[in-house]
Amino acid sequence: MAFRIGNPLGDRKASLVWSPENLRLAAGMVFMIGVFAYALLLTRGIPTLTPQGLLLLVASAVVGAYMAMNIGANDVANNLGPAVGSRAITLGWAIVIAAVFEALGAIIAGGEVVGTIKGGIIDPAEIEQVSEFAWLMFSALLAGALWLNLATALGAPVSTTHSIIGAVMGAGIAAGGWALVNWATIGQIVASWLISPLMGGLIAATILYVIKRKITYRSAMHQAAGQVVPWLVALMAWAFATFMLIKGLGDLYRLPVVQAAPVGAVVALAAFLAVRGPIRRSAATLENTKGAVNRLFTVPLIFAAALLSFAHGANDVANAIGPLAAIYEAIKTDEIATRAATPMWILILGAVGLAAGLALYGSKLIRTVGREITELDRMRAFSIALAAAITVIIAAQLGMPISTTHVTIGALFGVGFLREYLKTNYAKMEQTIIAGHEGEERAKVEAYLHRFEAAPIEEKRRMLADIKARSPGIPEAPLFAKKERKAMKKVVKQQLVKRSLVFRIVAAWIITVPATAVLAALLFKLIILLGG
Fold this sequence. Notes:
Elements: H1 8-17, H2 20-43, H3 51-74, H4 77-85, H5 91-109, E1 113-115, H6 130-153, H7 160-176, H8 183-216, H9 221-248, H10 257-284, H11 290-294, H12 298-316, H13 318-333, E2 339-341, H14 344-372, H15 378-398, H16 404-434, H17 439-454, H18 457-469, H19 482-495, H20 507-529
Antiparallel strand pairs: 1-2
Helix pairs in contact: 2-3, 2-14, 3-6, 3-13, 3-14, 4-5, 4-14, 4-15, 5-12, 5-14, 6-7, 6-13, 6-20, 7-20, 8-9, 8-15, 8-16, 9-10, 9-12, 9-15, 12-15, 13-14, 15-16, 16-17, 16-19, 18-19
């Protein structure tokens, strides 16, 4: 018998010290210390900077990096969750791809000039002192970051844009009163809480239903996929090309929808011609199963995740660097600016912060979005990604402000509720019919219903016609009462009807703006009280 000499209590303490959570926390602290040194090195040479201004600017850079980390941890899951949940890509590779494309989007297209007052939520002309404005933006940045940290810890995907908007609003009210706020903009944001998920859910459910109708409800699924998938890829190419031109390239290059859509059509045609042959040849070699057909959606999903990550980095990095740029401009020029030039060091700080937050803490929300809300395969994930891009295009054309977080989560719910509706509807029909039969007849009915469930739409219609005729030449068709035949027919009809989806807005979405507003107001008042 071998004896192990050691200290079990010491081993337990060591395992706690080196736990993954503590390692992530330590890595985050090292990153923040690095940001402090980085900001101090690059700002101390500014001629107009006072010691107090230097302290505020360096502190703001640290908080800005903290905000960027939380954006990376919370918001990026919307782009990666469906692809990871469907197992189109592993979690590790998803984080690598997203970190690279988030950083590229932030640096390349993050904008040389950013709006310092997100969404025009307050009127800076009502603020008298530049120092007060700088502390207002600092309070908003810290409040938004703290709220996102809490939401991420709770596993709640929330809008990072709404977080900073609510924080700016609250700090603005604390600084200048209620009249400082643009309440029309707040009204549009409130409306988007309902519109974004509904629109995303309805579009995603529609796309998924079309895929079911044209591919998985067919007897020869692999052949149907070879015909349909190239058109779906072309639609995705159009949607993402148009999306990138109207929003995804940030301030680098933008076109209105009416100009971007035709360019997207050209890209779609090129994509269709490029993929039609390879997809048809690949489909011909597949087994005639849903799992095999799912593999055709892998590459489009990876491209979608990369493009969404680039677009997110280009646009939402401003939620971290916008307030920081405002503070930098105020300290440097002693003026309040609604648009400010963004030094490269601030862009890099935001980009690296996004990547660091994603790498350290993004896995939790990726799992929540990809695996916990509803079970995903690659067809469903494709529907979600495509719905997100199409929804942004429609909203841009209508001039509606929407949250891509709400759109993506709404699309997830849409896909999940559609599946639940179809399955529940079939289960009710099955229970109704089986309850009316006993003995050997019940076994025969159950076997027939099993065939009915697995059959494609065309076969279902034939089976319904057979049992209605009660043909003696079809011994395997049991005798169903008229009420039972109607129940079976109702299933087929309801599978062909587009379903309107009703959602309950997630509580975290509703309280994001007021929660960050209250927190930012308290922080601002505390700073002023302490002599800020």
